[in-house]
Amino acid sequence: MKKLITSLAVASVLLIASACSSNTKNDSSIEGLTIYTSIYPIEYFTEKIGGNTVDVESIYPPGADAHTFEPTAKTMAQLAESDAFFYLGAGLEGFAESAAKSLNNENVSLVELGIHESLFSHVDNKEEGHEGHSHGDKDPHIWLDPVRAKEMASYIKEELIELNPEDKELYKENFNKLSKDLTALHEDFQSVVENADHNKFLVAHGAYGYWEERYGVEQISVNGISPSSEPSQKDIERLILTGKKENIDYMIFEKNVSNEIATIVQQEIGAEALSIHNLSVRMREDIDEENDYFDLMRQNLNVLKTVLNHN
After folding, report:
1. One domain, residues 243 and 106
2. Which of 41, 95, 136, 216 could covalently link to 143 via disulfide, CB atoms 3.0 to 4.6 Å apart?
3. Burial class (CB in 10 A: 0-12, 13-18, 19+), 124
4. How far, in Å, CA of 311 to CA of 156, rounded?
5. Is the pTM higher than 0.85?
6. In this structure, is residue 239 part of a structural domain?
């Protein structure tokens, strides 16, 4: 029912927007491409590859929850006037998928990067004791793996070339620079894990499965792939016992997601709280300090280095 209401609301707003915007839509051949995105990594990669030929902005305000965000009428009007909307899909952004269906009647290119199956690992979404929002059978947090992030960026490059073939060589050149930076980040992750004392870490939100797959670490998560999933009482007791048995000194929380159950587990274990960034959106402080994707990922790497080298 909620999904139906959201879809109807989006459609209503777009009817108004299309009536108001027919004469004001950006001419990409003159002003460059106006592109809106969902999550921050898509915004950042599009901006880096597109350079001065694109004007890119995420629809999410600072610190928003990518799962529960609902757009304003102004946001929907801006989307209807843009040249393209890039989003991940894969069950991550409920609003984005509803909006994309409504935008089919607008002159907006809809780019769902998640149609590329090679980006994802498939997961069992019927974890014992966890209920709540489902991502289907895919783990959507691909941007946290530098190798998968590079593949996603390559698809963004191809979409930009399709939208603006005249700047094909620029997009290729900018992608190659980005690709080298992502490779260097991947190598830094490898080095930290290879030289770590341990390979297990305790985290509130199980968004780091691709680190497990890529680097051989093991996340012990309070919640599942979705931060809104709920562990059972049995799961909570098991987590506390595991934390004590493994002598885990830290609980990792995400900056834009509160988690009361994880706080209880942390206190029962006697672990120190550390913060990690899931990068789905930037916080206001990230913007003020001009922290980009690589800054935030390297901050995460420092946190990972700390928790994998506890006493």
Report:
1. no
2. 41
3. exposed
4. 43
5. yes
6. yes
